[in-house]
Amino acid sequence: MKIIIISMLLGICWARKLQIREAGPTYVCSHCQPEQIHIAFGEKVNDIVVTWSTFNDTQESRVQYGVGIMDKEAIGSSKLFIDGGKLMRSQYIHTVTLKDLKFNTRYVYHAGSVYGWSEEFSFHTPPAGEDWPVRAAIYGDMGNKNAHSLSYLQDEAQRNHFDMVLHVGDFAYDMDSNNALVGDEFMRQIQPLAAIVPYMTCPGNHEQAYNFSNYGARFTMPGPDSTLFYSFDLGPVHFVSISTEVYYFTHYGLKLIVNQYNWLREDLAKANLPENRRRRPWLVVMGHRPMYCSESNDIDCSCEYTRTGLLGVYGLEPLLMEFGVDLVIWAHEHSYERTWPLYDNKVYNGSYDKPYVNPGAPVHIITGSAGCKEGRDHFLNDEPKWSAFRSQDFGYTKFKAFNTTHIYMEQVSVDLHGRVIDSMWLVKNKTVHFTNTHF
Ligand SMILES: *[C@@H]1O[C@H](CO)[C@@H](O)[C@H](O)[C@H]1NC(C)=O
Ligand SMILES: *[C@@H]1O[C@H](CO)[C@@H](O)[C@H](O)[C@H]1NC(C)=O
Ligand SMILES: *[C@@H]1O[C@H](CO)[C@@H](O)[C@H](O)[C@H]1NC(C)=O
Ligand SMILES: *[C@@H]1O[C@H](CO)[C@@H](O)[C@H](O)[C@H]1NC(C)=O
Ligand SMILES: *[C@@H]1O[C@H](CO)[C@@H](O)[C@H](O)[C@H]1NC(C)=O
Ligand SMILES: [Fe+2]
């Protein structure tokens, strides 16, 4: 009884405290309404970072949240972001981290300040540990116009089909276009999914303006170098996100190539330590420009730099092989393509006559057909030997890591109103990985 009374009193005090804070706007602010709300995993996957924009300075950044009711509050900060265009349009980009959330729990939240609050959203935190099936929507190259997959993604996200989204570079076309108005519009278009499912990203070539400043400011990814690279663990999978663009926009610094290479080597080596790999056997890497593709557009498809490096040094493919990366996900080509297990242009099919059972090399997926104003890309007539399936349909990829031995992926065609046009089971039932065996 005592405990009930005390907790009621505490509850009343807490409610009063929130009320008092709520009550004090000192002026009416015209451009303080939060918009472009989206979430991402923080330093741990039970930390959720909420990011949003206001056009005037609200002087505070708050998220009220909780289980069922919004009885907690977290305070963050905002940064003035000035686009590099002629008008130098400015906005305040707010980030608040909700730390140490309960696993496997639905939270409600709203974001804002005393000058204005967003509508209420909810998200579901991931279960603890490794033993649960991770579900993701994966795609790249989605613009603010001609975004064929957008409504499907919004719908599926709201039906709780995804634990996260991986957007593999190339946003909005482009976020900095029209003095970054295009970026604002795009961020509003993805809000119906990105405010409720962690929206994890990597940079593409369309983000390069002003040293990737729109990308860096608008998305809050984990880690100190998150505009370039980061990694996180989710269920039985270690996910890694890299920037392939450091190999192409070299005027932003050749050193970035070296930094990323060294970081990736260290990150993969750690994930591949026997005690880590046993608990979390899947390694998945995403980056924007593919190492392999069979587009007919030569310029677009000559993506050898990330594979073999600049002048033969700092190529990333040997790292994928050395540390037994299971799956590599790319975009950039406005199409979908799946490869056989592949290393150095050679196919390493798996055992039992099944290419994807204990494969001898990484499998590559290129999924850049979400839809953008540049339309579809075309394939070479001769399909390379390493290519297993390809399609020009607009659509997106669905990923499910069932457990430590089975990953399932499928490709949804939006042209065919949501029909699955390709699927793959990646199976690994040996404890050894293909590390070094094929060099
Ligand atoms: C408020 O935002 C508007 C629209 O972006 C801008 O024109 C104005 O300068 C801002 N005012 C302040 C005080 O920041
Ligand atoms: C571009 O941004 C990266 C960080 O994202 C930074 O390390 C690099 O020095 C910048 N390059 C230039 C030329 O400003
Ligand atoms: C790999 O497996 C696929 C499907 O069975 C087959 O078509 C292809 O020829 C195989 N490639 C090699 C090099 O064994
Ligand atoms: C993993 O998931 C697959 C697909 O549901 C299932 O067939 C398999 O038995 C599972 N393996 C383990 C070890 O749970
Ligand atoms: C691994 O999977 C293959 C194909 O499904 C199966 O034939 C084989 O018996 C499995 N091996 C072990 C050790 O489970
Ligand atoms: Fe691209």
Automatic annotation (TrEMBL):
The Purple acid phosphatase C-terminal domain, residue ranges: 361-423
Protein origin, superkingdom: Eukaryota
Domain Purple acid phosphatase N-terminal, residue spans: 34-125
Pfam families on file: Metallophos, Metallophos_C, Pur_ac_phosph_N
Catalysis performed (reactions): a phosphate monoester + H2O = an alcohol + phosphate
InterPro entries named among the record's database cross-references: Calcineurin-like_PHP (IPR004843), Metallo-depent_PP-like (IPR029052), MPP_PAP (IPR041792), PAPs_C (IPR025733), PAPs_N (IPR015914), Purple_acid_Pase-like_N (IPR008963)
A Gene Ontology molecular function term of the record: acid phosphatase activity
Cleavable signal peptide: 1-15
Family: Belongs to the metallophosphoesterase superfamily. Purple acid phosphatase family.
Stated name of the protein: Purple acid phosphatase
Organism for this UniProt entry: Spodoptera litura
